[in-house]
Known about the structure:
406 residues; alpha/beta; Alpha-Beta Plaits; 8-stranded mixed beta sheet; 6-stranded antiparallel beta sheet; 18 strands; globular; binds adenosine-5'-diphosphate; binds aspartic acid
Amino acid sequence: xxxxxxKFGGTSVADTDRIRAVAEKVKREINVGNEVAVLLSAMxxxxxxxxxxxxxxxxxxxxxEYDTVVSTGEQVTVGLLALVLQGMGIPARSWLGWxxxxxxxxxxxxxxxxxxxxxxxxxxxxxxxxxxxxxxQGLSAENRVTTLGRGGTxxxxxxxxxxxxxxxxxxxxxxxxxxxxxxxxxxxxxxLERVTYEEMLEMASxxxxxxQTRAVEMAMKHGQRIQVLSSFEDVPGTLVVDEDExxxxxxxxxxAYSRDEAKITLVSVRxxxxxxxxxxGPLSEASINVDMIVQSVSGDGESTDMTFTVAENDLERAxxxxxxxxxxxxxxxxxxDSNVVKVSVxxxxxxxxxxVAQTMFGALAEKGINIQVISTSExxxxxxIDEEYMELALRSLHAAYxxxxx
Length: 406
Ligand code: ADP
Ligand code: ASP
Ligand code: MG
């Protein structure tokens, strides 16, 4: 007997037929004697609609009320699945985040799970009941509903798996595993049988949304096994594992992209000590994360251009914050562009091999794609390019690294 946590994403619970199919997957585990807890997302499209409602009534909204609204989609699906399971003779009940409770910090709209009181779930699972838990939501110390950031049900699932001491955490989605790049954009993408926590973490944080970054982080920290697999097809998925469980390590394991990027250029700021601190300090105080940064060499020795990226939905606030600093920085102009994407090549083999970045630059040059900003780390190279060339860039890079499926 094993203890399994099953997570189903939005397309996997898109309507009542899909929810019945989910119930069959739960039943299959029950039939072989396993204990099962289920985590669900909202029906696909519902969370986007809820976010749009909030945006429609308020642009600089109170994040506590945002969470109250956007967390509701999951309440519908957990109730429905509990009903379907009951109808099949399987004891089941729904649990909202506050009922478990799943305790989080109070950083609304991107809260972190601090603790899950899982004793009651544990007891009921031992007695044969299936808890059907709402993903994406939790409860703050102030007793307010919080949400964990988009894609947060992955994190709810891993956190619950850790709390319940689950043998497996199965992430069911609309693709049958983790691929070398998004299979919806590059049809030649290859499915990875295994991927290391490190690579998956890098891929997720660089935009691969098949798993939320925080979920991978947590799985890695606790050694929780996760498997990504299809809720539509019965085929083996991808296991996320330790590095020593990988037999043959590819140099480049994946290519990620993120559309959620915006570029800001401060034209002609003073080239003197303290300028970077004067720019990035106030942004950080406003909880705006800055990602890629380039500072050009100054022609006159007195001023320089500073270009950097922020998340697209932080752009407005970032520009407002910078406008207030314009005089202090001696800055001529603030330019910004949200029609950019970040494309990244990832591989743990990279730190011991030269030439990975050069292959990337060469492949992009051959297609006439201009690189606007570059950043690197031990296991990745990222470039910022015009959004229009994203698909072309992904396909060319995929081929250039020899990743295309035969
Ligand atoms: P869910 O609703 O099940 O959580 P998501 O939409 O969050 O599903 O994540 C699955 C999607 O991730 C896929 O439909 C796919 O388009 C996208 N994706 C991006 N990069 C990859 C990749 N390298 N491998 C697999 N899927 C990827
Ligand atoms: N429903 C939430 C979202 O769309 C959480 C999730 O699906 O993981 O972001
Ligand atoms: Mg998701």
